[in-house]
Amino acid sequence: MLQTLYITGAGVSAESGIPTFRGEDGFWTIGSANYTPQEMATRAMYKSQPAEFLKWYYHRFVTYRNHGPNQVHQWLSDKNVITQNIDGLDGKAGNNHFIAIHGRVDQVTPFHTQGEPTECFTAPWDEVDESRLAESLLALFKIARRGPEKGVSLKPYVLLFDEYYTDLYRISEAQSRMYAADRIVFMGTSFSVNITQMALEIARHKAIPIEVVDPNPAHLLYKQVSYHRMTAREYIASLPTS
Asked: Coiled-coil annotation: which residues (predicted)?
């Protein structure tokens, strides 16, 4: 029996009403008043301007925290999944074994040095007082005037642009799943992040056939690739039922 690994991106969550990242209305086209998304979503911004950082995450991501999974998430619920999405919708759909390789916006960690062991727990977004947004966020995330304090302050459990994959994000397990796969299916991803490039290199090294599901798929320099120019929902509808 084939060991299929599904690597999913923002296109899978689009039908749940969550904007993609690089489309016309995507998150990465939207900055703050003074900063680009690539500047906002960084550890450096969290440390130097935590109120701006937290407000940006609150407006761009947390407002979608109560959206539910769609039929693609339901279909993937018993599959071997690594997702780039931080929305946690695979878990809401009942997949207890998916890897959220970029973290989950519904969780936080204590502020820590990367690579150190730490824990994750539920984020306090529901307690935010929007009438005094900055002050409320700083208080809930335990950030004083001098800035975040390691071991005390809270940080969203999300991988930032100036951070790297660690086992907090289950990178070793993700790589093991890639090497063990007989087939890799990329769904709704633009191949613009490191995890998709890592999977592609492993596929090339092990001659693993891959499939790309996307209405406008990125062209890959690899012979063993099949393209499905459709949405993830259209793809699962096209598959034979067992």
From this structure: none
